[in-house]
Amino acid sequence: MNDLFMDKHIFSVSELTRDIRDLLEDGFPAIWVEGEISTLRIPQSGHMYFTLKDEKAQLKCVFFKRANANLDFRPEEGLSCIIFGRISVYEQGGQYQLYVERMEPKGKGALQLAFEQLKKKLEAEGLFDTGRKRPLPFLAQKIGIVTSATGAAIRDILHVINRRYANIHIIIRPCLVQGKTAGPDIAQGIEELNEYADVDVIIVTRGGGSLEDLWPFNEEVVARAVYNSKIPVISAVGHEIDYTICDFVADVRAATPSAAAELVVQEKAQLLSLVEMLCNRMQEAMSKRLQFAQMRLSRVSHSHALRKPEMIIEQYQQRLDNLDKALTIQLNHLVKSKESQMRNISSRLANLNPLAVLSRGYSITYLQGAKEALKDAGGVKKGDILKTKLHKGVIISQVEGCEA
Q1: Sheet holding 233-237: strands in order across?
Q2: Cβ atoms 25, 43 nearer than 8 A
Q3: What would you report as the CA-atom Rg of the chain, rounded to the nearest whole angstrom?
Q4: CATH code linked to domain 2-107
Q5: Could you report the per-residue pLDDT of 157-205, keeping only the tens digit for each?
Q6: Which of 187, 242, 307, 371 could potentially form a cystine with 238 if both were Cys, beta carbons 3.0 to 4.6 Å apart?
């Protein structure tokens, strides 16, 4: 039995796995694979583990953090994509897998997908809510502009402002408007104007370009800087047909940089015309009020009261005398009426007073100890002690007999 294996090379599991790995790496060093992402897992390490599948097969994939750090969009379950990488073997698990170097969404550009994903996320957080958007100042005295200091956008804005109202104070915060570091630079510019510049409104702008050119204005760091701004923000990025995340978050979106300048600065001639019109209206209103006051003064000055005021005083004095006389008569009448009422009441009370009855020879008899007067002889018996109240004094007697 041992002789059977003497001329045979026996592989260890590790050795065989390494040989298979070498074959796969040599055979598939750089390939593109199309499929749908499934069972996506992203641990704290930042590496991405998922399965790429179609209707018949599955392929394990790993997308290390160093390779996915510059990914413009976020992979998600069910996303159809095209992946570039190399085939190798994960020796510890004994399985072959695709080590991803690049990933592109199928049928939709990576930037467009990233735009839609971020837009959906920020909208759910309330960054686009119209209820939080602030009105622009009627007449801004100081304007902050975040843009390239040498671009066409700043030239257009300055031209419009100088034409409409030349003495507006403008603070330009130069920034990058294209490239990987442009987004953080734009966000920092917005924050600096909020902290140091004391401006009335901020314009965030750049000229037109492709989606890639405008991408810094679609970055989350810019969106959050606009949202957190304490100063109203106008977004004027690209041409009229271009929309960025910055446009959705800003308080006002302008179709072009020139339109932003027109929104924030009114024409001086129009303002002067408005001031003149308001002054004329105020003068007319004051003139009418003065005329009305003069008419009232004229009527009052020609009135009888002002021409002979002593006659008015004498009339009121006579009226007071008449009122005093009438009041005295009424009081005398009232006193006499009340005195008559009092006499009547006193007479009635005197007639009802039981002591008055006793003064006429009547008496009241009680059984000793009782509180009510006797009204019937049948209520006593022989031997009872009686108390008889006279007009003056009380008689105590004992019953000898009764006659009903």
Answers
A1: 169-174, 142-147, 201-206, 233-237, 252-253
A2: no
A3: 55
A4: 2.40.50.140
A5: 999 988 887 788 999 999 999 988 999 999 999 999 999 888 999 999 9
A6: 242
HSE-up of residue 189 (Cα within 13 Å, Cβ side): 27
Distance of CA 134 to the CA centre of its chain: 12
Q: Which of 208, 203, 174, 206 is nearest to 261 (CA)?
A: 203
Residue 355 to residues 148, 183, 188, 358, 360: CA-CA distances in angstroms?
A: 120, 115, 111, 5, 9
- Amino acid identity of residue 174, one-letter, is P
Q: Return the half-sphere exposure (C-beta side, CA atoms, 13 A cut-off) of residue 249.
A: 29
Low-confidence ranges of the chain (pLDDT < 70): 1-7, 25, 107-109, 267-274, 301, 303-308, 351, 353-361, 404
Amino acid symbol at 374: L
Q: Tokens 């065989």 appear where?
A: 16
Domain ranges for the chain = 2-107, 116-129+137-266, 358-398
CA distances from 79 to 38, 142, 220, 223, 306 (A): 8, 48, 22, 25, 96
CATH architecture assigned to 116-129+137-266? 3-Layer(aba) Sandwich (3.40)
For 87, phi then psi, to 5°, come to -90, 135
| pTM of the complete model | 0.54
Task: Provide the phi-psi class of 179: left if phi over 0, else alpha when psi is between -120 and 50, else beta.
Answer: left
CB 71 within 8 A of CB 64: no
CB distance 51 to 58 below 8 Å = yes
